[in-house]
Write a structure and sequence with these properties.
Length: 167
């Protein structure tokens, strides 16, 4: 007969193998989900647009953010981290990204939202490059699963422009 230690080892090995197989199946099942998130962002007001004493441009804006990210949620989704970034180019850098707002969506019921807010983080450019600058707003999301690989994507919303003069 087999000893107690041998039987416990066999049972533990079998259980962990089944658990690993279930985790792998959960990760693969996320690939079958068709994601179709939608979002709109409006710049309601440029509250301030100034040149700081060190020569940097600073912008304060009021945003109206509406999004439906419910399609990102599956039974394997723990939460979704979402943030809004301003993206623009300058002569010095081909891509500048400034995070304006972020949030954590813990459940599918909270994934359809509409908020009016000021930028949560400072919109500053190192230099005087923001006057009259065209920029895109991009809504980025990171889907954090209970098990498996994290997934990230974004939705680019083009067609925004900053004023020509400081306020």
């Amino acid at each position: 007969m087999h000893s107690f230690g041998y039987r416990a080892n066999a049972l533990l090995t079998f259980s962990l193998t089944i658990l690993a197989l279930m985790c792998a199946m959960a990760s693969v099942s996320d690939n079958l989900n068709s994601q179709s998130p939608t979002a709109t962002v409006q710049v309601l007001n440029v509250n301030r647009f100034q040149k700081k004493s060190n020569g940097d441009d600073e912008v304060g804006i009021t945003l109206d953010i509406s999004a439906d990210l419910q399609s990102l949620f599956t039974w394997n989704t723990k939460q979704v981290f979402v943030f809004l970034a301003a993206e623009y180019s300058t002569p010095k850098n081909s891509l500048n990204q400034v995070s304006l707002w972020d949030g954590i969506i813990p459940a599918k019921e909270d994934a359809k939202f509409s908020i009016k807010t000021k930028n949560k983080y400072r919109f500053i450019d190192q230099g005087s490059n923001l006057r009259g600058r065209d920029f895109n707003l991009s809504l980025h999301w990171h889907v954090m699963p209970k098990t498996g690989k994290m997934f990230a994507d974004k939705l680019v919303l083009p067609g925004y422009r900053l004023p020509e003069s400081y306020r």
